[in-house]
Specification:
One of its GO terms (molecular function) is hydrolase activity. The protein has about 240 residues and is an alpha/beta fold. It contains ten helices and seven strands. The chain has one domain (about 5-115, about 175-240): Rossmann fold, CATH 3.40.50. The protein has helices at about 25-30, 60-75, 90-100, 125-130, 135-155, 160-175, 180-185, 205-210, 225, 230-240; strands at about 5, 15, 40-45, 80-85, 105-110, 190-195, 210-215. Helix 2 packs across helix 3 (about 90-100) and helix 5 (about 135-155) crosses helix 6 (about 160-175). The chain is globular.
Length: about 240
């Protein structure tokens, strides 16, 4: 597993990308934003994505990703980190915090997946990818997905291993037991869930009741850190120690 690292003091910040993405292009502007203190920052790519290895025998489940991420963070000497994780990466981060508590002191999820969902053909993203069988996706399905997701998302999705991308999408659709939402709500650490303004997550009040800060970011869509990096950085500044 590989990452782009910005030097600085601990506690470290760990940035985790979404499905078919890679961390450096999504987070570099925010991680280096002048509003944020210069803590050590790791813009990390999960196995099968971006600049990381693509092992063919890896399960690519959310749990396997979380355990591999934990191993990488331990090797990097990271503990008690602030983890900022987007979309699918937020699901992995919730599992990471539940299974490897010593590694995560603060969890900030960015429009993250919290619940399982049904695979739906011809949809862009995870739902559409999970609607294929693995062999059908690897053979031809990836081309249909490429045409649906558009050039921006494909610019990073094309770096992903096709089997790893499909297996991750299937695991994301299936979710975890307990669900990612339940894992998040049970965590004893500071937690926040950031969403595009006007698009609060399902059961937002339930999240708040469990101690999760639920915050809308103006003038943004799903890729909040790209759509409004200034507001995203200001929100991180208020949330991070």
């Amino acid at each position: 597993m590989r990452w782009v690292e910005l030097p600085g003091p601990d506690p470290a910040r760990v940035y985790v990308h979404g499905l078919g993405a890679t961390s450096a292009p999504y987070y570099a502007e925010v991680a280096a934003h002048p509003l944020l203190p210069r803590n050590r920052s790791l813009l990390i790519d999960l196995l099968g994505f971006g600049i990381s290895d693509r092992p063919q025998d890896f399960a690519y489940t959310l749990e396997a990703h979380a355990d591999a991420l934990a191993e990488a963070l331990r090797k990097a000497g990271v503990a008690g980190a602030a983890v900022i994780a987007h979309s699918m990466g937020g699901a992995v981060a919730a599992v990471l915090a539940a299974r490897h508590a010593e590694l995560v002191a603060n969890l900030i999820l960015v429009d993250a997946n919290l619940d399982p969902y049904p695979p739906i053909p011809v949809q862009p993203g995870g739902s559409g990818i999970a609607s294929y069988t693995e062999e059908a996706f690897v053979a031809e399905g990836w081309k249909e997905v490429r045409d649906r997701v558009g050039p921006h998302w494909w610019s990073t999705m094309r770096l992903a291993d096709p089997r790893g991308l499909h297996r991750t999408a299937v695991s994301l659709a299936q979710g975890t037991t307990p669900t990612m939402r339940e894992l998040l709500q049970a965590l004893p650490i500071p937690r926040a869930y950031l969403h595009p303004e006007g698009q609060a997550p399902a059961s937002a009040e339930e999240l708040r009741a469990s101690g999760v800060e639920v915050l809308g970011i103006p003038e943004s869509g799903h890729n909040i850190m790209l759509d409004n990096p200034e507001a995203f950085a200001r929100t991180l500044m208020a949330l991070l120690p």
